Sequence to fold (619 residues):
Amino acid sequence: MLAAALSSDGRYVLSGSGDRTLRLWDAATGRCLRVLEGHQGSVTSVCFSAGGGYVLSGSEDRTIKIWQRNTGRCLATFEGHAGTVHSLGLVGAGRQVVSASADATLALWTVPDEQSAPYVLSRVLPSDLVLSAWTEYERSLKLARQALAAGEAVRAAHHLREARSQPGHGRRPEAMALWSNLYVHLPRQALQSAWGGAILAEHTEAVTSVCLSHDGRLALSGSRDRMLKLWQPDEGRCLHTLEGDMGGVTAAVLSGDGRFALSSSTDATLKLWDVRTGDCLRSCREDLDGLTSVALSADARLAVSASVDGTVHLWDVSAGRLLCVLRGHTGPVHSVALSADGRLALSGSALFLIRNDGERLFTSGQLNAWETATGYCLPLFEDEPEAITAVALSADGRFALAGCGQAVIQRDNGRFVQSGVIHLWDLATARRLRTFEGHSGAVTSVCLSFDGRYLLSGSTDATVKLWEIASGQCLRTFAGHGDAVTSVSLSADGRFALSGSADRTLRVWILDWELADTEPADWDEGARPYLEMFLSLHTPYAEPPPRKRRRSPLARWFYSAPAEKEITQSLKRQGPPVWTESDFQALIRTLGYAGFGWLRPEGVRRQLLGMARTWKGPS
Fold:
């Protein structure tokens, strides 16, 4: 730490450090509230503005920066000094700041007014119109609540549109809360708007992984600081910090029901956590190289992980043991995905060169699909040599996403620049359906919306993009991170997008969808893949998992895994599907996430029973 300052009200402490960052602290609790990044050299001087709404910093990079305290956003950069800025001081009732530099000069700068904001041309409404709008808003909101209580989603949507159409009421919290409740009852038709929500800044190292629960009420993050954090994303509040004997966290996922979390780390440790208590329930550690990615089946029984040594691993989470190692990649595996029923795994690898500045230039790689019961690598992507840096599977298991990194040489100057594309595949036909282009850096993370109509991507270009699958159009580009975006996630209900970055922060993005007025019906064939996945998931395993054998002292060189036949039988499903009423209600919620919340439960039940009678397993 090279500099520190206390706010005039004594509530905050600001520090500057040799790691090029500023940190804002709560003076009462000692908790780090925010990490501000942007300087290219050590931060040598810091101070608060007169009102405390802004903070100022000077650096070895010869610049002075002004930051918004409550958001961490850099508002301005002052350049002019030819040496390190050693000291800052407020003068003139706080309206100006004087800086002293190693270049033997003093400089005087004007600080923006605490309450300054860009001018916006606004229409002045007569008081009677304002009162009328408020009355209509309250009336429409009351009718919408009544319609929701009666289970009439279309009528509720009509009244909420009326409420939100009133001047100044489009984004009122109570209206937005009711509107987003309809996302699981009516199909999402188009993106109306999107904006930034909470900024979560409590990690002390790069955020490597983020995950949202299906209902968007919980968020999980993992970081190189060896910690996982559980958040309430709508309020930006940290609920738990999960710590244990592990290396830097490389990936973390939540189970489908939100009860458990699974994490992987650089020391080849897999940990299962109780989300409610924050306790570590099980730890799996084997003699493997550092793990880079992890995925979990819907029933939280199976997991798949990836390693820098080019291997993919299948784990029995319920028993806390490694089942088998899948070999076939020739480079580090960066990302893995697992189908909800655990039948299919997807993995992507990429070879790269490292430039003098530490940047990775991706060259080539592989995309592999695995049959988990047999360990067989399916011949779906044999002619795809691109560097694969991110993968994902659709909720119904029919489609695959592959994000890529490409090093492209510029003809005019001979320099290499990064770019990234995303490919969408049909797994049944091994056909590439669409390619999405737009990122100016390698794609680091991808995910599909639960209804399969939208995709979210993050990149080393520090942006997050939301795409429409059908048209290939980029609907929104979310900017705000100060470094590479490392991980992205969409809540199943479509309310939130979440991104994590090397800038040590998470950002919540609020999505406002237009909904289709679809009247209730008993059945729609579009829902069939989700029922097929449900039946596959609830078909019993042929045999229990193989028993754990005594560990050999030579296990690192001669891995003593269960026999192939044992694994195949323990992962093979056979017999009639079996489920409970609780499982069926979970299926109804799944259909709501997938855009079929307007199907009547009894109609779905009849269809499910009919399919179960002739069920012979997934095709």
About this structure: The chain is about 15% helix and 45% strand. The chain has four domains: 3-110, 127-185, 193-515, 525-613.
